[in-house]
Design a protein that fits this description.
The protein is α/β, with parallel strands linked by helices. It is built from 6 helices and 6 strands; from the N terminus they run αβααβββββααα. It has a single domain, classed as Mannitol-specific EII, Chain A, CATH 3.40.930.10.
Length: about 160
């Protein structure tokens, strides 16, 4: 799964201002809810409920300042992803107890088992690279982030 297929210019956010994990998840879901693939999937709070329920099972803070909250959504037509850098790191209960300043929300159709797992694996693999995370943190705009995610990472992510 290519990151170019996951993100659009409208689903990449630069320097999101939030002060808590719940507020971060709310803002990511708001961005996702603007995606036409979510048409007919219920209200934003229902999407948020699915993400919060998944988070109750276990943290999606994978370490090194990165979180990948995710959920499967009934009636969703396709995988939807939102990428955000945060203006200031927030407490997230990550596995390494470090605050989070990079987040990727993945919403998948309820029956998209392997596609969902491939997307999670690809995002995780790319964000494991310290040099790439640092480049993302230094990006000056959402457009620069989008280009890094969709163009610059493909050749070196394999």
């Amino acid at each position: 799964m290519s990151l170019a297929k996951l993100f659009t210019r409208d689903t990449v956010v630069h320097n999101l201002t939030v002060s808590s994990k719940k507020q971060l998840l709310q803002e990511l879901v708001k961005v996702a809810a603007r995606d036409t693939a979510l048409t007919g999937c219920g209200k934003t709070r229902d999407l948020l409920g699915a993400v919060l329920e998944r988070e109750r099972i276990g943290t999606t803070g994978i370490g090194s300042g990165v979180a990948i909250p995710h959920a499967r959504i009934e009636n969703l037509c396709k995988l939807c992803a939102v990428f955000a850098t945060l203006e200031k790191p927030i407490k997230y209960d990550a596995v390494d107890d470090r605050p989070v300043d990079i987040a990727v929300l993945l919403l998948a159709p309820e029956n998209a088992g392997s596609e969902h797992l491939r997307a999670l694996a690809q995002v995780s693999r790319v964000l494991r690279r310290e040099e790439f995370r640092n480049r993302l943190r230094r990006a000056p705009t959402a457009e620069a982030l989008f280009l890094m995610l969709t163009e610059g990472v493909q050749s070196s992510a394999a």
